[in-house]
User: Fold this.
Amino acid sequence: MTSKQPAYLVLNAGSSSLKFSAFRPRPSDGDLETLLSGQISGIGSIARFEAKAADRRPLGEHTWDDKDSACRDTLLQYVLNWINTTLVDDDIVAVGHRVVHGGLSLGQPMRVSPDLLDELDSLVPLAPLHQPHNVAPMRILARNFPDLAQVACFDTAFHSSQPPVARNYGLPQALTDAGVCSYGFHGLSYEYVTSHLLASRPDLAEGRVVICHLGNGSSLCAVKGGRSMDTSMGFSVLNGVPMGTRSGSIDPGVILYLMREKQMGLEELEDLLYRQSGLLGVSGISNDMKVLQESADPAAQKAVELFCFRVAKEVAAMAASMGGLDALVFTAGIGENSPEIRALIAERLDWLGVGVAPDANARKAYDISAADARVPVFVVPTNEEMMIARHTIQVLGHKPGHA
Ligand code: ADP
Assistant:
């Protein structure tokens, strides 16, 4: 009888989607290989399941009627059953979860327990649009599979190394002490990119690196010696550079003005800042950078220009937080896939010694630095799920090949 190999499931649950990936450690070196990935989209409307193998080959799809599309219990159970029947040689021994907020105290991934679930619930006010969805599958799994080990990995945790001065908003101290400060997000992406860069360029291990995570949600991080020193997102995911539909940083006086003069209430402001602003709001065309780049409409170009202007400005701010810049890294949907955006940002940073080589940039090489640039520039595809799988194995103390 052949025994099954231990495998790890990673879940990233959002308001209307449930993304999943499965990984298996290679017994030879312990490195993780991706077995499959997929998602259920349209939760709450018409839910649709899609999964693909590591080589992107489609493995399965399914659509629910509207009656079952809102039942997270049913949808999660479907994913688990499907994985168990698809991975005939593997056995899911633990689940790692992406959790947006770990507050000030959860600076490391943690094993899920009733106490941790209570603590995560207490953080809901800090991330009301994301945290409840992240936590829901943990409770479902704890109820249905009490023996299955679960680990929570926080998007805020990588930033726990930041000095207090980088987190302070200049509000009265009592508010700062109560947690009204900058937390930062995209931490699992920054951690993965940092580990990748340090493995391939150990000479940068003590260096000052700015990572630009440019996707639908975008932020930048100042990483010195492998540790987060500053970041552009803050108390919420609204801060920093303009994003697909989020404004990025604005003068807080604008909010007071909109409340007083335009009688805007909480929900209207939330909708404006989270869903109607950014690339979509400025262009009036789309939140999708690819669509804007392909459009000849001046409004689309205005949105692209604003994005590059603000990212370049934020790179300089991050460099100032570390006292210099030794490398620049692009990652996530826009950062990995748009040579034009990388070139436009680099052009604005010429004075800092940043430059990209047109050929290498166009073919998405790993090192896209111009020959004469003082600051090397890299493109690193992010893999937050892989980072979560690594943390899950580490937290549980599993050895490669021995769950
Ligand atoms: P999320 O924050 O939702 O994870 P992604 O990291 O997947 O988002 O990034 C999505 C963004 O990446 C979209 O704005 C999309 O237009 C952009 N993108 C993807 N491919 C390209 C491309 N080839 N050129 C320009 N933008 C692209």
Summary: The domain at 203-384 is CATH 3.30.420.40 (Nucleotidyltransferase; domain 5). Residues 250 and 395 are 39 Å apart (CA to CA). The chain has two domains: 5-154, 203-384. Residues 215-217, 244, 288-290, 293, 332-334, 337-338 surround adenosine-5'-diphosphate (CB under 6 Å).
